[in-house]
Amino acid sequence: MATVLKANNKGLNDKWVRRIGIPLVAILLLMSSDIIPVVISPKMLIYKIFRNIFYVFCYWESNRMIVLYMRSKYPDLKDTSKRIAMHIVVFVVFVLVAGFLITVINVNLPQTNRDPFLSEYKDMVLRSVLILGLVTVIYECAYYFGLYEQSLYESERLKKESLISQLELLRNQISPHFLFNSLNALITLVPEDPQLSVLFIQRLSNVYRHVLNYNGKNVISLETEKNFLDDYIFLHQMRFGENLMISYHLPEKLDHLQVIPFTLQMLVENAIKHNIISKRKPLAIDIRVTKNFIIVSNNLQRKTSGVESTNTGLRNIVTRYELLTNKIVNILATSTEFTVSLPLIISQE
Known about the structure:
Layout: E1 7-8, E2 11-12, H1 15-31, H2 42-73, H3 80-106, H4 117-173, H5 176-192, H6 194-214, E3 220-221, H7 222-240, E4 244-249, E5 257-259, H8 263-274, E6 283-290, E7 293-299, H9 312-325, E8 330-333, E9 337-343, E10 345-346
Parallel strand pairs: 4-6
Antiparallel strand pairs: 1-2, 3-5, 5-10, 6-7, 7-9, 8-9
């Protein structure tokens, strides 16, 4: 049922539900009326069946338009209570107005007996509540369970993307290449500057501790991510020196801003991995906050050989942001610069 009544870009895919439901509800209403079908003439029976079908059709289609409007106004699972509350208000008004109009028409049509207007109106309102209540419950339940099913699916996708990100991060951090470069820099550093060697080991330890502490989180504060990035960049700057330049343009207070863990690290890692870094061609990475984005950009001087780009990290970042925030990560590459704009997540605490 949920898949049959699922909303799409064109409306509701409920054609067969309406074709079967409208005549079925019309017959059930006739069976529940005071007039037993077997005691009236066949001609009057056919008339009442078609009249009921017409009424049910009008009610069903009108209520369906209300359902579509409420879904467009309150589309998310978290808006369910608002959607139901507003639907009840519109439902009551519609039943009273539609019941009155149909009663006016109904009392002027041929019938086997004729009740007073108020009695007819009361009966029509009760029947309207029965019809619309049944239709509304069917649509709302189908939509709710469809949203719930979708939220479970998105949650599973997010978990999968998070696992992919963790594997990608761990592969980058614990890869023989990264570890070899770090240890090689440490070996060179120990005899020259033992005190700086201790600091290098501490920073390396901080990087791995951060990976272990935050690889299961969906979001972390920008300040925490920056502290991790400082340790990570320090290790690379021991290797590249002044040829790797990092500049920050961030607000003083970062505790209310959040990002997805390791995204900044991934972008810096990609810049270091895919660009030439030398005295003649230093790599400059700029990290700044502009409006609702944190922007990471670097001058573009791609390596011509030795590095294969799969774009796995970028695809992972884009997908995780779409799932968590419904916002788009902007990626812009020109002949001289590569820029990625990450939507900032504002803390609700």
